[in-house]
Amino acid sequence: MGKGMSADKIDLAATLRLENELEHKLMQDPLVIEGMFWGVPRYGHPEGEVYKHVQEVLANIDKLDVDPDTRAKLRLIALTHDTFKFQEDKRRPRNWNQHHAVLARRFLERYIDDRILLNIVQNHDEIYYIWRDTVVYKHPERAAARMERLLDRLEGEHQLYYLFFKCDTQTGDKNPAPIKWVEENFPGIIPVVL
């Protein structure tokens, strides 16, 4: 068992209330299982293990008034977005090819070929980095270049990206300031209340 692994056997299918065949397939993969049980309480994630964070994200998705296809996409992103944190290389300088979101994308490519959905998984934290570059570090040029790249990768699916960001960020003890900034500065979205 790795760092933060639960000694108790948790039924992930029941705990996460899996809804379709793909979700069940993902939760049977040993890498996903290991990733779901990884984690200790830390800033932004006082809940500890990844599966507990995913539970919170899924509960937020449940609050949205969206069509079944959008709901299924949001759930798939939620189930995979942080699952590979246990494999992330955080040494300095950072190897961004070993970022947990890149690892999640590579894993999910074995199951789906939806390029936009894969791009959202890979870039789910990017808008946070853009907010940080803009507001915290005061690097507007770098933030603008990052925003342009992100918008290109989303290919018009701004609302789906925003919905996941909001569901992901309104968990644990995460800073709510990026949500407000995104709702005021991200093009092509309709803000929602959870």
Strand content: under 5%
The 3D shape can be described as globular
Percent helix: 55-70%
How would you classify the helix and strand content by structural class? mainly alpha
Radius of gyration: 16 Å
How many angstroms does the end-to-end distance come to?
36 Å
Q: What is the residue-averaged pLDDT?
A: 95
Q: How many E-type strands? A: 0
- Number of domain units: 1
The biggest beta sheet is recorded as:
none
What is the helix tally?
11
- The SSE string, one letter per element, is HHHHHHHHHHH
Q: Unreliable runs, pLDDT <50, ≥5 residues?
A: 1-7
Descriptive keywords:
single chain, 194 residues, mainly alpha, 11 helices, globular, disordered N terminus
General description of the model:
- The structure is a single chain.
- The protein is built from eleven helices and no strands.
- It has helices at 12-15, 21-26, 30-36, 50-62, 68-80, 100-108, 115-122, 126-136, 140-154, 158-169, 177-185.
- Helix 4 packs across helix 10 (158-169) and helix 10 (158-169) packs antiparallel against helix 11 (177-185).
- 33% of the residues are buried.
Give a quick rundown of the structure.
The protein has about 190 residues and is an all-alpha fold. The protein has helices at about 10-15, 20-25, 30-35, 50-60, 70-80, 100-110, 115-120, 125-135, 140-155, 160-170, 175-185.
Provide the fold topology.
Blueprint: H1 12-15, H2 21-26, H3 30-36, H4 50-62, H5 68-80, H6 100-108, H7 115-122, H8 126-136, H9 140-154, H10 158-169, H11 177-185
Helix pairs in contact: 4-5, 4-10, 5-10, 6-7, 8-9, 10-11
